[in-house]
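for the recovery benchmark. tokens below, seq after
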């Protein structure tokens, strides 16, 4: 497996944390800690922040290579959708990535695979990279249906995508039982499912496209386990929740990817 065919992407998912002033502080700390580190050639660093923090963080990170992500996007460009945010709005604020179908959204906000597909499409139309999250519940792993669940989620999320759109998409394998629990998947478990996802993409669009797609692991990734997880041939980065709220910890994870 040739990792040079795709980007390694380390993305922090700040979830519902940090007011704009707190966000500015954390963004500046991350930028400072990354200063002088040559990440540009092989690793993209992204911070996925709450909507209201986007402009502040964009301003704070001006002139750095750190990219800005959002945590959700509506699938219509505009209209009577009170409380929602569209892809053109995000693009104009400088957002380059957006998390789509996170398990917390599937669990607490009833997001279906069909909606995840529409959101990802809307992001791609504006040139924003969707980070599509897939992953099984603990009960599903225990029942031996991880492969079935992740295959279904991946296929439905990518339904109707052209090969070029798939290439511009990131998939994050996030076993739900590993998110925020301190219990990460082992490197072998992460590799097994990331490789499965790549095989599914190969089945849909061919091997060349599959090898160009970034597939992240997420779920209790931290400085102490990042190197082993990221060393796996099909793990091309991480989506990091809790540990991304500490500049020191987050930057250690970036270093583990270099
Ligand atoms: P965690 O979250 O790193 O806190 O487990 C990961 C995620 O939800 O993306």
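predicted aa per position
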């Amino acid at each position: 497996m040739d990792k040079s065919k795709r980007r390694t992407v380390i993305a922090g998912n700040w979830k519902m944390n940090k007011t704009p002033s707190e966000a500015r502080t954390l963004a500046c700390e991350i930028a400072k800690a990354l200063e002088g580190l040559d990440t540009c050639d092989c690793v993209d660093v992204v911070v996925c922040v709450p909507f209201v923090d986007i402009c502040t963080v964009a301003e704070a990170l001006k002139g750095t290579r750190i990219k800005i992500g959002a945590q959700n996007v509506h699938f219509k460009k505009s209209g009577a959708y009170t409380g929602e945010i569209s892809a053109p709005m995000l693009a104009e604020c400088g957002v380059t990535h957006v998390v789509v179908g996170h398990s917390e959204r599937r669990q607490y906000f009833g997001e279906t695979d069909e909606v995840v597909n529409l959101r990802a499409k809307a992001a791609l139309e504006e040139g924003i990279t969707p980070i599509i999250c897939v992953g099984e519940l603990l009960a599903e792993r225990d029942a031996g249906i991880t492969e079935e669940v992740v295959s279904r989620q991946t296929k439905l999320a990518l339904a109707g995508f052209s090969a070029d759109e798939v290439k511009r998409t990131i998939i994050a394998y996030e076993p739900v039982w590993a998110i925020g629990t301190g219990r990460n998947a082992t490197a072998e478990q992460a590799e097994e499912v990331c490789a499965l996802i790549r095989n599914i993409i190969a089945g849909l669009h061919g091997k060349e496209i599959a090898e160009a797609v970034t597939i992240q692991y997420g779920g209790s990734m931290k400085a102490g386990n990042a190197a082993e997880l990221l060393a796996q041939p099909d793990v091309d980065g991480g989506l990091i929740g809790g540990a991304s709220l500490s500049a020191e910890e987050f930057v250690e994870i970036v270093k583990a990817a270099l």
